[in-house]
Amino acid sequence: MFRQLGRGSTVLVVTAHPDDEVFAHGAAIATLSRQGSRVVLCTASGGEAAEHGATSSAEARRRRAARLDAACTTLGVSAWDWLAEGRWTDTAGRPTPGSLTSAPLADLTQAVSARIHETLPDVVLTVGPDGLTGHPDHILIHQAVTSAAISCRVPALGSYLLPADITQGHALLAEVLPGERVGSGRITGRDEPTPCRLGAPAHVAEARRSALDAYATGLGTMELEDLVRVFPGRGDSLVLRAVLDAIGWHTERYTPLTT
Protein backbone atom coordinates (compact mmCIF):
# COMPACT_ATOMS: atom_id res chain seq x y z
CA MET A 1 0.00 0.00 0.00
CA PHE A 2 2.72 2.52 0.97
CA ARG A 3 4.60 1.83 -2.26
CA GLN A 4 1.59 3.15 -4.20
CA LEU A 5 1.75 6.52 -2.47
CA GLY A 6 3.87 9.42 -3.62
CA ARG A 7 3.63 12.78 -5.32
CA GLY A 8 0.01 13.69 -5.91
CA SER A 9 -1.43 11.28 -3.34
CA THR A 10 -3.37 12.34 -0.24
CA VAL A 11 -3.09 10.69 3.17
CA LEU A 12 -5.57 11.37 5.98
CA VAL A 13 -4.31 10.69 9.52
CA VAL A 14 -6.90 10.48 12.29
CA THR A 15 -5.80 10.51 15.94
CA ALA A 16 -7.36 10.83 19.38
CA HIS A 17 -4.96 13.35 20.94
CA PRO A 18 -2.10 15.68 20.00
CA ASP A 19 1.21 13.74 20.15
CA ASP A 20 -0.42 10.57 18.79
CA GLU A 21 0.66 11.72 15.34
CA VAL A 22 4.30 11.40 16.46
CA PHE A 23 4.10 8.21 18.51
CA ALA A 24 1.82 6.31 16.13
CA HIS A 25 2.53 7.83 12.70
CA GLY A 26 5.64 10.01 12.85
CA ALA A 27 7.74 7.84 10.55
CA ALA A 28 4.94 7.45 8.00
CA ILE A 29 4.11 11.17 7.96
CA ALA A 30 7.75 12.21 7.60
CA THR A 31 8.36 9.62 4.87
CA LEU A 32 5.23 10.27 2.84
CA SER A 33 5.48 14.06 3.04
CA ARG A 34 9.05 13.89 1.78
CA GLN A 35 7.89 11.68 -1.09
CA GLY A 36 5.44 14.37 -2.16
CA SER A 37 2.22 13.15 -0.56
CA ARG A 38 -0.24 15.62 0.90
CA VAL A 39 -0.68 14.59 4.54
CA VAL A 40 -3.76 15.89 6.36
CA LEU A 41 -4.19 15.36 10.10
CA CYS A 42 -7.43 15.39 12.10
CA THR A 43 -7.32 15.14 15.88
CA ALA A 44 -10.44 14.32 17.89
CA SER A 45 -9.59 16.03 21.18
CA GLY A 46 -7.42 18.90 22.34
CA GLY A 47 -5.10 16.88 24.56
CA GLU A 48 -6.24 18.98 27.50
CA ALA A 49 -5.38 16.35 30.12
CA ALA A 50 -1.68 16.59 29.27
CA GLU A 51 -1.44 20.35 29.87
CA HIS A 52 -0.93 20.47 33.62
CA GLY A 53 -1.18 23.91 35.16
CA ALA A 54 -3.60 25.33 32.61
CA THR A 55 -6.31 27.41 34.27
CA SER A 56 -9.07 26.28 31.92
CA SER A 57 -9.86 23.69 29.29
CA ALA A 58 -9.68 26.39 26.63
CA GLU A 59 -6.20 27.44 27.74
CA ALA A 60 -5.05 23.82 27.81
CA ARG A 61 -6.33 23.31 24.27
CA ARG A 62 -4.54 26.46 23.06
CA ARG A 63 -1.28 25.32 24.61
CA ARG A 64 -1.60 21.86 23.12
CA ALA A 65 -2.57 23.25 19.74
CA ALA A 66 0.66 25.25 19.61
CA ARG A 67 2.67 22.11 20.36
CA LEU A 68 0.72 20.14 17.77
CA ASP A 69 1.30 22.81 15.16
CA ALA A 70 5.05 22.74 15.78
CA ALA A 71 5.15 18.94 15.59
CA CYS A 72 3.16 18.96 12.35
CA THR A 73 5.54 21.49 10.79
CA THR A 74 8.52 19.34 11.72
CA LEU A 75 6.99 16.13 10.34
CA GLY A 76 5.73 17.75 7.14
CA VAL A 77 1.97 17.68 7.70
CA SER A 78 0.30 19.73 4.96
CA ALA A 79 -2.72 20.75 7.06
CA TRP A 80 -4.22 19.85 10.41
CA ASP A 81 -7.50 20.52 12.16
CA TRP A 82 -9.70 19.24 14.96
CA LEU A 83 -12.01 16.42 13.92
CA ALA A 84 -14.91 18.43 15.38
CA GLU A 85 -13.51 21.53 17.07
CA GLY A 86 -14.39 21.79 20.74
CA ARG A 87 -16.81 18.87 20.66
CA TRP A 88 -14.71 16.32 22.56
CA THR A 89 -12.25 16.87 25.40
CA ASP A 90 -9.33 14.75 26.53
CA THR A 91 -9.99 13.60 30.09
CA ALA A 92 -7.22 10.96 30.32
CA GLY A 93 -9.68 8.16 29.65
CA ARG A 94 -12.25 9.18 32.25
CA PRO A 95 -15.82 8.88 30.90
CA THR A 96 -17.33 12.27 31.70
CA PRO A 97 -19.86 14.38 29.75
CA GLY A 98 -18.19 15.86 26.67
CA SER A 99 -15.13 13.63 26.93
CA LEU A 100 -13.78 11.76 23.94
CA THR A 101 -13.98 8.63 26.06
CA SER A 102 -17.75 9.05 26.30
CA ALA A 103 -18.32 9.95 22.64
CA PRO A 104 -20.90 7.76 20.88
CA LEU A 105 -19.20 5.64 18.25
CA ALA A 106 -21.83 6.63 15.68
CA ASP A 107 -21.02 10.33 16.17
CA LEU A 108 -17.29 9.77 15.79
CA THR A 109 -17.82 7.61 12.72
CA GLN A 110 -19.98 10.30 11.16
CA ALA A 111 -17.31 12.94 11.83
CA VAL A 112 -14.58 10.78 10.29
CA SER A 113 -16.77 9.98 7.28
CA ALA A 114 -17.32 13.70 6.71
CA ARG A 115 -13.56 14.30 6.74
CA ILE A 116 -13.01 11.45 4.30
CA HIS A 117 -15.56 12.93 1.89
CA GLU A 118 -13.94 16.35 2.30
CA THR A 119 -10.33 15.21 1.96
CA LEU A 120 -10.74 12.38 -0.59
CA PRO A 121 -7.67 10.50 0.68
CA ASP A 122 -5.96 7.62 -1.06
CA VAL A 123 -5.50 6.00 2.35
CA VAL A 124 -6.43 6.71 5.97
CA LEU A 125 -3.97 6.06 8.80
CA THR A 126 -4.98 5.50 12.41
CA VAL A 127 -4.13 3.08 15.22
CA GLY A 128 -4.72 -0.66 15.19
CA PRO A 129 -7.38 -2.64 17.08
CA ASP A 130 -5.65 -2.28 20.45
CA GLY A 131 -5.26 1.47 19.96
CA LEU A 132 -1.47 0.98 19.95
CA THR A 133 -1.45 1.68 23.70
CA GLY A 134 -4.72 0.17 24.96
CA HIS A 135 -6.03 3.67 25.74
CA PRO A 136 -9.85 3.69 25.46
CA ASP A 137 -9.82 6.87 23.34
CA HIS A 138 -7.41 5.29 20.88
CA ILE A 139 -9.51 2.15 20.60
CA LEU A 140 -12.62 4.25 19.97
CA ILE A 141 -10.86 6.19 17.21
CA HIS A 142 -9.74 2.92 15.64
CA GLN A 143 -13.31 1.67 15.60
CA ALA A 144 -14.67 4.91 14.15
CA VAL A 145 -12.04 5.15 11.42
CA THR A 146 -12.42 1.50 10.45
CA SER A 147 -16.20 1.82 10.20
CA ALA A 148 -16.00 5.09 8.25
CA ALA A 149 -13.34 3.76 5.87
CA ILE A 150 -15.39 0.66 5.09
CA SER A 151 -18.49 2.79 4.49
CA CYS A 152 -16.57 5.24 2.29
CA ARG A 153 -14.67 2.45 0.51
CA VAL A 154 -11.23 3.88 1.18
CA PRO A 155 -8.22 1.83 2.34
CA ALA A 156 -7.23 2.25 6.01
CA LEU A 157 -4.14 1.10 7.88
CA GLY A 158 -3.63 0.82 11.64
CA SER A 159 -0.32 1.20 13.45
CA TYR A 160 0.63 -1.38 16.05
CA LEU A 161 3.54 -2.66 18.11
CA LEU A 162 4.74 -6.19 18.65
CA PRO A 163 4.87 -7.72 22.14
CA ALA A 164 8.62 -8.03 21.64
CA ASP A 165 8.84 -4.27 21.02
CA ILE A 166 7.22 -3.58 24.39
CA THR A 167 9.50 -6.05 26.15
CA GLN A 168 12.56 -4.33 24.70
CA GLY A 169 11.29 -0.91 25.74
CA HIS A 170 10.69 -1.99 29.32
CA ALA A 171 14.14 -3.57 29.42
CA LEU A 172 15.71 -0.21 28.55
CA LEU A 173 13.62 1.51 31.21
CA ALA A 174 14.66 -1.07 33.81
CA GLU A 175 18.29 -0.12 33.17
CA VAL A 176 17.72 3.58 33.91
CA LEU A 177 14.86 3.27 36.43
CA PRO A 178 15.59 0.03 38.29
CA GLY A 179 12.70 -1.15 40.40
CA GLU A 180 10.31 1.58 39.21
CA ARG A 181 6.95 0.88 37.60
CA VAL A 182 6.56 2.82 34.36
CA GLY A 183 3.38 3.03 32.32
CA SER A 184 -0.23 2.02 32.77
CA GLY A 185 0.33 -1.61 31.87
CA ARG A 186 -2.11 -1.28 28.96
CA ILE A 187 0.60 -1.35 26.29
CA THR A 188 1.08 -5.01 25.48
CA GLY A 189 1.55 -5.13 21.70
CA ARG A 190 -0.02 -7.62 19.32
CA ASP A 191 0.99 -9.97 16.53
CA GLU A 192 -0.67 -9.20 13.20
CA PRO A 193 -1.01 -11.88 10.50
CA THR A 194 -0.95 -9.42 7.57
CA PRO A 195 1.54 -6.63 8.24
CA CYS A 196 1.90 -3.78 5.75
CA ARG A 197 5.53 -2.67 5.50
CA LEU A 198 6.23 1.07 5.68
CA GLY A 199 9.89 0.99 4.70
CA ALA A 200 10.75 4.37 6.18
CA PRO A 201 14.33 5.56 5.60
CA ALA A 202 16.51 5.91 8.67
CA HIS A 203 16.90 9.68 8.27
CA VAL A 204 13.24 10.34 9.19
CA ALA A 205 14.17 9.42 12.77
CA GLU A 206 15.58 12.91 13.29
CA ALA A 207 12.30 14.57 12.27
CA ARG A 208 10.30 12.27 14.53
CA ARG A 209 12.55 12.95 17.51
CA SER A 210 12.36 16.71 16.94
CA ALA A 211 8.58 16.58 16.58
CA LEU A 212 8.26 14.84 19.94
CA ASP A 213 10.36 17.58 21.52
CA ALA A 214 7.53 19.97 20.67
CA TYR A 215 5.51 18.35 23.46
CA ALA A 216 8.23 18.23 26.12
CA THR A 217 11.81 19.45 25.91
CA GLY A 218 14.12 16.51 25.29
CA LEU A 219 11.35 13.90 25.12
CA GLY A 220 12.54 12.90 21.67
CA THR A 221 16.17 14.00 21.52
CA MET A 222 17.60 13.60 25.03
CA GLU A 223 19.35 10.38 25.96
CA LEU A 224 16.96 8.15 27.91
CA GLU A 225 19.15 8.02 31.02
CA ASP A 226 19.26 11.84 31.08
CA LEU A 227 15.60 12.25 30.20
CA VAL A 228 14.32 10.29 33.18
CA ARG A 229 16.13 12.70 35.52
CA VAL A 230 14.23 15.73 34.23
CA PHE A 231 11.02 14.35 32.73
CA PRO A 232 8.37 14.21 35.48
CA GLY A 233 6.11 11.59 33.89
CA ARG A 234 6.31 7.86 34.38
CA GLY A 235 3.38 7.08 32.12
CA ASP A 236 2.88 5.52 28.73
CA SER A 237 4.61 8.32 26.85
CA LEU A 238 7.85 7.31 28.52
CA VAL A 239 7.21 3.67 27.65
CA LEU A 240 6.66 4.59 24.00
CA ARG A 241 9.82 6.70 24.01
CA ALA A 242 11.81 3.69 25.25
CA VAL A 243 10.18 1.41 22.69
CA LEU A 244 11.23 3.75 19.88
CA ASP A 245 14.78 3.75 21.20
CA ALA A 246 14.70 -0.04 21.19
CA ILE A 247 13.18 -0.69 17.74
CA GLY A 248 14.42 2.39 15.88
CA TRP A 249 12.72 5.74 15.41
CA HIS A 250 12.19 5.08 11.71
CA THR A 251 10.35 1.84 12.48
CA GLU A 252 6.56 1.74 12.28
CA ARG A 253 4.26 -1.25 11.88
CA TYR A 254 0.89 -1.19 10.09
CA THR A 255 -1.89 -3.65 9.44
CA PRO A 256 -4.75 -3.33 6.90
CA LEU A 257 -8.07 -2.39 8.52
CA THR A 258 -10.17 -2.74 5.38
CA THR A 259 -10.26 -5.31 2.62
Keyphrases for this structure?
alpha/beta, 259 residues, Rossmann fold, 12% strand
Question: How would you describe this protein?
Answer:
This protein has 259 residues and is α/β, with parallel strands linked by helices. The protein has a single domain, classed as 3-Layer(aba) Sandwich (Rossmann fold), CATH 3.40.50.10320. Helices cover 42% and strands 12% of the residues. It is built from eight helices and seven strands, in the order βαβαβαβαβαβαααβ. The chain has a seven-stranded mixed beta sheet with strand order 3-2-1-4-5-7-6, sandwiched between helices. The mean pLDDT is 96.
Order of helices and strands: EHEHEHEHEHEHHHE
Low-confidence stretches: none
Tell me the strand percentage band. 5-15%
Which class best fits the helix and strand makeup? alpha/beta
CA-CA gap between termini: 12 Å
How many helices in DSSP terms?
8
Q: What is the H level of CATH, i.e. the homologous superfamily?
A: LmbE-like
- Total number of strands: 7
CATH topology: Rossmann fold
- Biggest sheet, spatial arrangement of strands: 3-2-1-4-5-7-6
Question: What is the approximate shape?
Answer: globular
| CATH architecture assignment name | 3-Layer(aba) Sandwich
What integer is the average pLDDT? 96
What can be said about the biggest beta sheet? 7 strands, mixed
- Name of the top-level CATH class: Alpha Beta
Helicity range: 40-55%
- The overall number of domains is 1
Rounded to the nearest angstrom, the radius of gyration is: 17 Å
